[in-house]
TrEMBL record:
The UniProt record lists the keyword Magnesium: no
Signal peptide limits: none
Gene3D superfamilies the record matches: Ankyrin repeat-containing domain
Protein's name according to its UniProt entry: Uncharacterized protein
Keywords: ANK repeat, Repeat
The keyword Cytoplasm is assigned to this record: no
Spans of repeat ANK: 59-91
């Protein structure tokens, strides 16, 4: 019984990542209503290990990180409403750092700036550093993501 429940949970979480990747916000919302875990890292086989090994956890992607990378404001809002942790670390940094180096940069960075603002409004730490010691502001400036850099400065980030 427990094994079957775990399989169903894994399926929900894998589908959540796929829905975010394809920017299917209605499906993201439905999956969250079905109790997909908005804070669970992508690598289900390593979930238990990730709780004990920081390096392994840093290598995985959470749904919030993926939505932030894609500058998908609607998906980020849904995930945050369902309790996605803003300070979860994946791929070496927080979701705020992920939005500073997006996979898909919207027109002039504007959608990414909206995602950064949403994360900050939900308590993301503007001073958090990645595994290389860089803040989201440093990364945004390095990537010429000026719209996100301005939002970070508005919330107290300093160069």
């Amino acid at each position: 019984m427990l094994r079957q429940a775990r399989k169903e949970e894994d399926k929900l979480n894998k589908n959540l990542l796929k829905a975010i990747e394809s920017q299917d916000v209605p499906f993201v919302k439905w999956l969250l209503e079905q109790k997909a875990d908005p804070g669970r890292p992508s690598s289900s086989w390593a979930w238990g290990l990730a709780l004990h090994r920081r390096a392994l956890q840093d290598a995985m992607v959470t749904p919030l990180h993926l939505a932030a990378e894609h500058c998908d404001a609607a998906a980020v809002q849904q995930l945050l409403r369902c309790g996605a942790p803003t300070e979860a670390r994946a791929e070496g940094g927080t979701a705020l750092k992920a939005v500073a180096v997006p996979r898909v940069l919207g027109a002039g960075g504007r959608p990414c700036a909206a995602v950064a603002e949403e994360l900050l409004q939900h308590g993301a730490n503007v001073s958090a550093r990645d595994i290389f010691g860089r803040t989201a502001l440093e990364v945004a400036l390095q990537e010429s993501n000026t719209a996100v850099a301005e939002v970070l400065k508005k919330y107290g980030a300093v160069e």
